[in-house]
C-alpha cells in the first residue's frame, strides 16, 4: 500500500502535513479535556485575558480606526461615480461586522499574542521548565495552554466589537468630512443595513479564530526543539500557521454563517 | 520500590537505553554513575514518566507507569520530586515563588505556613535572604540549590537528583551530600542520584549502579561496587577518585 502511495507527487510532504495535523488534533483534544478538570486556576486565566485583551487594545484601536477610514475613502470614491455615497456607512459597517473586524483582529492578536505564546512556551520547553511542571504534577497543558486558549476565545470577539466600533467611527469621520456625506443619511444607512446577526456572526467567527490561533501558537511552542534558533522557528511557524488557518477557516465559516445565520430581506 | 524492567529507548535511530534492568529500594539512596551520554538522564526521565519507553516498563510499587494515562500519571507524580541538571527554575518567578510553587499547587496551606516552609528549605540549601532574587540573577550553583529547595518543598516520597553537585564548590558539595543523607535518614525518602562524582557517591550511597552503553553493568553496596571485577567499573572509579 505504502509502495503505491509513494508515487503520489510530494508524498513525503503530504505525509508530514497529515502527521502534523494529527498531532495537533491530539494536542488540542488533550488540552480541552484538561481545561474541564480541576483545579481551575482563575489567576492564570485572568492574567491571560489581560495580556491578550487589554494589552492588545492600543493596536486594535489604531488599526481599526485606519481600516475604517481607508475603507470609507475607497468605497466613497467608487460610489461617487454612481452618486451613491450615502451607502458608504452601510457598506463599511457590513464589511467590518462580517469580515474585516474579526479577520483583522484575529491577525493582530496572532501577531502580538500568538507569537508571544509560542516564544514563551518554546523557551520554557527548551529550558526544561515544561518538564519541571510535569514533575511537579502540574500538567502544562492545563497550566499553560488552557488559560491562553480560553483567554483568546473570550477576548478576540470582544476586541472585534471594539474594532467594529472604531472602524465605523473612522468611516464616519472620513465620510462626513472628506466625502461630504451628510451625517444623517450615513448613520441611517448604517443603522438600517447592519443587523445584530451580522455582528454576532462576526463575533462567532472571532471566537473560532481565537481558539485556532491560541491552540496553534501553544502547539508550536510546545513542539520547540533546539535552543534559541528553535524558539525563533516556532514563533515564525506559529504566526504563519495561525494566519493561514484564520483565512482558510474564515471562508468555510462564512459559507456556513451566510447559509444559516444572516437573513437579509431589505 | 522502583523496578526498571528491560527498558529500551532510541532517539532518531540511536539506541540510548538497551535493555536496562535495575531495582531501586525504598528508603535508600541509590547513586547511578556512568560516563556522559550513557543514558543516565534518559533513565531518570523514564522513572518519573516524562518519556515512554520503546520497550520494557518502569514499575512503582507494582504499578506500571508506562501503562497509565496522562491523568493517572499526573496523580502519581505527586509522590516525586525532581532536581533538574540545569535546575529548570521558572524564570518568570522569583526564588520565593519558585519554591512556593508546588506548595501553592498541591496544598491548602496559608501564605504564612508556605512562607515558613520556603524560608526553612532555602536555609537548608544555604540560600537564606535570596527570596526576592530572580533566577537570572543567580549563579548556576545557586540556581541548582533553589531547584533542590523546590524539589524537597513538598517532602515527596521519592526524589530524583540529576547531578545535584556538578558545578558546586567542595564545601557546598558536602553540604548538599549531607542534606541528601539527612533527608533519607530522617524522613526515609527514596533518593535516586545521578552523579559523576565518585567520592561523593561512595559517601552517600546505599547502592551504586553503573550505566555503560545503555545497560546497568554493575549494582551493589559501595563495598561490593569498589571490589567489582568489571574493567569499566574499575577504570571509572580510578579516574573519578584521582580527579576528586
Descriptive overview:
The complex is a heterodimer of chains A (266) and B (244). By secondary structure, chain A is mainly alpha-helical. Chain A has ten helices and no strands. Chain A has one domain (42-259). Chain A has helices spanning 2-5, 11-35, 42-52, 57-80, 88-126, 129-135, 140-177, 183-193, 196-222, 227-260. Chain A is globular and about 65 Å long. In chain B, helix 3 (95-106) packs across helix 4, helix 3 (95-106) packs parallel to helix 5 and helix 4 (111-124) crosses helix 5 (140-152). Chain B has a six-stranded mixed sheet, with helices on both faces. A four-stranded antiparallel sheet of chain B has the order 2-1-4-5, covered by helices on one side. Chain B is globular and about 55 Å long. The A-B interface holds A 30, 37, 39, 123-124, 127-129, 131-132, 134-139 and B 45, 48-50, 70-71, 74-75, 77-78, 80-82, 84, 86, 88-91, 101-102, 105-106, 150, 160.
The share of residues in helices of chain B is 25-40%
Structural classification of chain A: mainly alpha
Shape of chain A: globular
What's the number of structural domains of chain A? 1
**Count of strand segments of chain B:** 10
CATH-defined superfamily of chain B: P-loop containing nucleotide triphosphate hydrolases
Quaternary state, please? heterodimer
Most extensive interface: pair and counts?
A-B, 16 and 25 residues
The main sheet of chain A comes to: none
Structural class by secondary-structure content of chain B: alpha/beta
Number of helices of chain B: 9
Sequence stretches where pLDDT stays below 50 over 5 or more residues of chain B: none
Strand content of chain B: 25-35%
The N- to C-terminal Cα distance of chain B equals 31 Å
Nearest-angstrom radius of gyration of chain A?
22 Å
Q: How would a textbook summarize the main sheet of chain B?
A: 6 strands, mixed
Quick one: overall form of chain B? globular
Question: How many DSSP E strands of chain A?
Answer: 0
Amino acid at each position: 500500500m505504502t509502495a503505491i502511495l509513494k508515487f503520489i507527487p510530494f508524498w513525503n510532504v503530504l505525509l508530514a502535513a497529515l502527521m502534523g495535523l494529527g498531532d495537533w488534533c491530539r494536542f488540542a483534544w488533550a488540552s480541552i479535556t484538561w481545561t474541564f478538570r480541576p483545579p481551575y486556576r482563575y489567576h492564570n486565566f485572568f492574567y491571560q485575558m489581560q495580556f491578550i485583551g487589554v494589552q492588545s487594545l492600543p493596536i486594535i484601536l489604531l488599526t481599526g480606526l485606519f481600516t475604517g477610514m481607508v475603507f470609507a475613502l475607497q468605497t466613497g470614491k467608487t460610489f461617487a461615480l454612481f452618486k451613491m455615497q450615502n451607502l458608504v456607512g452601510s457598506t463599511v459597517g457590513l464589511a467590518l461586522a462580517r469580515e474585516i473586524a474579526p479577520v483583522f483582529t484575529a491577525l493582530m492578536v496572532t501577531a502580538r499574542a500568538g507569537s508571544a505564546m509560542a516564544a514563551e512556551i518554546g523557551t520554557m520547553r527548551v529550558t526544561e521548565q515544561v518538564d519541571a511542571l510535569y514533575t511537579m504534577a502540574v500538567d502544562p497543558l492545563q497550566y499553560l495552554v488552557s488559560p491562553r486558549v480560553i483567554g483568546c476565545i473570550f477576548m478576540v470577539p470582544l476586541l472585534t466589537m471594539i474594532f467594529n466600533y472604531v472602524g465605523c467611527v473612522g468611516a464616519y469621520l472620513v465620510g462626513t468630512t472628506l466625502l461630504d456625506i451628510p451625517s444623517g443619511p450615513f448613520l441611517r444607512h448604517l443603522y438600517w443595513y447592519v443587523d445584530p446577526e451580522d455582528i454576532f456572526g462576526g463575533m462567532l467567527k472571532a471566537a473560532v479564530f481565537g481558539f485556532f490561533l491560541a491552540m496553534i501558537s501553544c502547539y508550536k511552542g510546545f513542539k520547540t526543539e533546539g535552543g534559541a534558533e528553535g524558539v525563533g522557528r516556532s514563533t515564525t511557524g506559529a504566526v504563519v500557521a495561525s494566519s493561514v488557518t484564520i483565512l482558510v477557516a474564515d471562508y468555510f465559516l462564512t459559507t456556513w454563517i451566510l447559509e444559516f445565520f444572516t437573513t437579509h430581506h431589505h | 520500590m522502583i523496578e526498571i524492567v528491560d527498558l529500551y529507548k532510541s532517539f532518531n535511530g540511536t539506541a540510548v537505553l538497551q535493555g536496562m534492568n535495575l531495582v531501586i529500594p525504598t528508603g535508600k539512596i541509590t547513586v547511578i554513575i556512568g560516563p556522559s551520554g550513557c543514558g543516565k538522564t534518559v533513565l531518570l526521565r523514564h522513572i518519573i514518566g516524562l518519556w515512554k519507553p520503546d520497550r520494557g516498563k518502569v514499575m512503582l510499587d507494582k504499578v506500571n507507569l508506562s501503562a497509565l494515562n496522562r491523568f493517572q500519571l499526573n496523580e502519581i507524580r505527586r509522590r516525586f520530586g525532581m532536581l533538574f541538571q540545569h535546575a529548570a527554575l521558572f524564570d518568570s518567578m522569583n526564588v520565593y515563588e519558585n519554591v512556593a510553587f508546588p506548595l501553592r499547587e498541591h496544598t491548602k496551606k496559608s501564605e504564612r505556613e508556605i512562607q515558613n516552609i520556603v524560608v526553612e528549605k532555602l536555609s537548608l540549601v544555604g540560600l537564606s535572604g535570596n527570596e526576592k532574587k530572580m533566577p537570572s540573577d543567580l549563579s548556576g550553583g545557586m540556581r541548582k540549590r533553589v531547584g533542590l529547595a523546590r524539589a524537597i518543598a513538598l517532602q515527596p516520597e521519592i526524589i530524583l537528583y540529576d547531578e545535584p553537585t556538578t558545578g558546586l564548590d567542595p564545601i557546598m558539595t558536602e553540604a548538599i551530600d549531607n542534606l541528601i543523607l539527612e533527608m533519607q535518614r530522617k524522613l526515609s525518602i527514596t533518593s535516586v542520584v545521578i552523579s559523576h562524582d565518585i567520592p561523593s557517591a561512595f559517601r552517600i550511597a546505599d547502592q551504586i549502579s553503573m550505566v555503560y552503553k545503555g545497560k546497568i553493568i554493575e549494582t551493589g553496596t559501595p563495598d561490593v561496587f569498589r571490589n567489582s571485577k568489571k574493567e569499566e567499573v574499575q577504570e571509572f572509579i580510578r579516574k573519578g577518585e584521582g580527579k576528586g
